[in-house]
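Hi V.,

You were right to ask for the full record rather than a summary. Here it is.
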Amino acid sequence: MLSTVPSPPPLSETDVLAALAPEGGRHEAVGDVTDTAVRIMLAAADAFAERGFHATTTRDIASRAGLSPAGVYVHFASKEVLLFELSRRGHSRARDLLVAAAQAAPTPTDALRAMVGGFSRWHAEHYELGRIVQFEFRHLRPEHRDEVLHLRKEIDHVVAGVLREGVATGEFEVVDIPGTALALLSMAIDVARWYTPDVRRTPEGIEETYGELAVRLVRAA
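Predicted structure:
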């Protein structure tokens, strides 16, 4: 007899993003997540971060998610598609955080401090997802890589826009705006490479230090 219990509705994209990269960092264990697709993505994120994309198998991901390999394929066609969905959503989350920080700040200086500081903190609080999003990118298929590259360009554009505003108001002195935007973002992204919860630096401290450093690098004399 077929079950008459209705299936829960799928999560919205906003809810999926919040589950993958919640504010303050992830504290929920993979097995505690009720949405199966999100549980698979979290399991893949943990496996990719620990073992790397190539060394991770679908069986590894399924085991972490409490499923059979066949259960993974119900939701995702391949391991590469899982990497793409994590990369796409991770970049989308980062872009939205930068846009929100820029819109909330009263001046370009405040905006840049909040953006670079917040971006750095995000890569500390979500260092595992950050490593995948930023450093496993090369394993994507060309069409998936192009979509993620488009998101990266949007992120660059947000930071470059604040730098241009700061130059226009006289707050910043920047000759190469695209190059400076890339340098500031790279500084924040690198946090995911070295950060672990057992280091002495806290995400809050990283946010403050990197935000101030960004402003000092571009402040007009």
